[in-house]
Design goal:
Layout (H helix, E strand, L loop, with lengths): L2 E2 L19 E7 L2 E6 L2 E5 L2 E5 L5 E5 L18 E7 L2 E6 L4 E5 L8 E5 L2 E4 L1
Parallel strand pairs: 1-11
Antiparallel strand pairs: 2-3, 3-4, 4-10, 5-6, 5-9, 7-8, 8-9, 10-11
């Protein structure tokens, strides 16, 4: 089992390919996190996410519900992941309809979230 527990950059995209072909089943908005429940995996973000719709419209969501604006994350439910890419503090997930979800991280003493499922437990 993969246990990355450093609050650091996202791992190389090659370590996240288990997310490809997984279907997003549910988005949960908690007071201090946003959870993405897929059929086989879960992602929890405690910092922020960006959603880019197929037409290019971008929605940013801070994972502090009391301070967050509107979001359209529900539009991703039922969509299948086609690609996963990482670049330092950003993980980019592209869905079958062309929509994009960017999960953001930061360097620091506290985790900004984690990925849990077929690829083990990865903290970012």
């Amino acid at each position: 089992m993969n246990w990355n527990t450093a609050m650091d950059n996202f791992p190389d995209a090659s370590q996240l390919q288990h997310l490809v072909d997984d279907t997003l089943m549910q988005v949960c908005l908690d007071p201090y996190s946003t959870q993405f429940h897929f059929e086989r995996n879960r992602i929890m973000s405690e910092l922020s996410v960006e959603q880019v719709e197929p037409d290019g419209t971008t929605w940013s969501y801070s994972c502090v519900a009391a301070e967050a604006g509107a979001n359209m994350l529900h539009r991703l439910v039922g969509k299948v992941v086609k690609t996963v890419a990482t670049e330092a503090l950003t993980m980019t997930i592209t869905f079958e309809n062309g929509a994009v979800l960017r999960v953001l991280s930061e360097i620091g003493p506290y985790e900004a979230g984690h990925i849990d499922g077929e690829g083990g437990f990865i903290v970012f």
